Amino acid sequence: MNIASKTLIVTGAGNGIGRELTLQLLALGARVAGLDINEEALAETRRLAGEQADGLSTHTVNIADKDAVIAVVDEIRQQHGQIDGIINNAGIIQPFIRVKNLDQATIERVMNINFYGPLNLIQATLPDLLERPQAHILNVSSMGGFFPVPGQVVYGASKAALKLLTEGLYAELVDTNVGVTVVFPGAIMTNITENSGVKRDGEDAANPPKGAPKGTMPADAARQMIEAIESNRPRVFIGKDSRFMDRFYRLAPVRATRFMQKQMQKFIKLD
Ligand SMILES: NC(=O)c1ccc[n+]([C@@H]2O[C@H](COP(=O)([O-])OP(=O)(O)OC[C@H]3O[C@@H](n4cnc5c(N)ncnc54)[C@H](O)[C@@H]3O)[C@@H](O)[C@H]2O)c1
């Protein structure tokens, strides 16, 4: 899909990858409806858009709230007149806690935001997308959605659910005008730990512990996602870590699982 003059909805537009997606899409001549639960963060994205903010509408909404998502999509239809694409980017990680110690509220929060959030937006917009000459759905899963990471098991399950939802949508929509992409980022240098409310003393995702591998910059991740929409690629692995784990896990799943468990042990003490 050619991005210029299209209208795309970006969730999580207030921070990290979503902010970069928003700024880069605007720079390419798209109109963007940016959604986020954090109003101040959205205002900062608008400020950073500078003169290009004319093409940006911002909407404070919790994507886990289906009725609120339906209402916001109505608002976007009225403001922009069309919806050509959605990028389900908003997401949170879980606290670094083993499954046996996770409480029900945390489990539901992670599933509601990471799985039901994207599904809510897909169901609210698919009738619009099917009406357009060209349209696209891009969903941001995670490398943690195709292999297990101790201490992020429910997060991984939510991203695995999103992976299969996206792959299923691809199969259902393959003969239509709607392209579908699932993205598996490796580590990206954002403040997701803090934004997810799970930061512990001394931890900072943007400044990982000494010796921990550095991740991909969010602007680079956003650029690769936009290129995937432009070239209608169904699957994208972002970062050497994600590409490596994809191969390793397909070749030797048990060895890959043990390798990751050892890596995690080096950097994080699980509760
Ligand atoms: N950062 C990484 O290392 C990494 C790795 C793999 C996958 N991802 C995925 O990439 C996506 C973007 O992550 P990021 O690192 O840019 O995170 P981030 O925390 O920088 O940005 C996420 C944004 O989503 C918003 N958000 C959270 N819950 C919301 C809700 N209920 N409704 C609306 N908005 C909500 C937050 O306010 C925030 O602005 C996420 O889905 C994440 O799981 C990130």
UniProtKB/TrEMBL annotation:
<dbReference type="GO" id="GO:0016020">
    <property type="term" value="C:membrane"/>
</dbReference>
<keyword id="KW-0560">Oxidoreductase</keyword>
<feature type="domain" description="Ketoreductase">
    <location>
        <begin position="6"/>
        <end position="181"/>
    </location>
</feature>
<comment type="similarity">
    <text>Belongs to the short-chain dehydrogenases/reductases (SDR) family.</text>
</comment>
<dbReference type="InterPro" id="IPR036291">
    <property type="entry name" value="NAD(P)-bd_dom_sf"/>
</dbReference>
<dbReference type="InterPro" id="IPR002347">
    <property type="entry name" value="SDR_fam"/>
</dbReference>
<feature type="region of interest" description="Disordered">
    <location>
        <begin position="195"/>
        <end position="219"/>
    </location>
</feature>
<protein>
    <submittedName>
        <fullName>Oxidoreductase, short-chain dehydrogenase/reductase family protein</fullName>
    </submittedName>
</protein>
<dbReference type="GO" id="GO:0016491">
    <property type="term" value="F:oxidoreductase activity"/>
</dbReference>
<dbReference type="InterPro" id="IPR057326">
    <property type="entry name" value="KR_dom"/>
</dbReference>
<dbReference type="Pfam" id="PF00106">
    <property type="entry name" value="adh_short"/>
</dbReference>
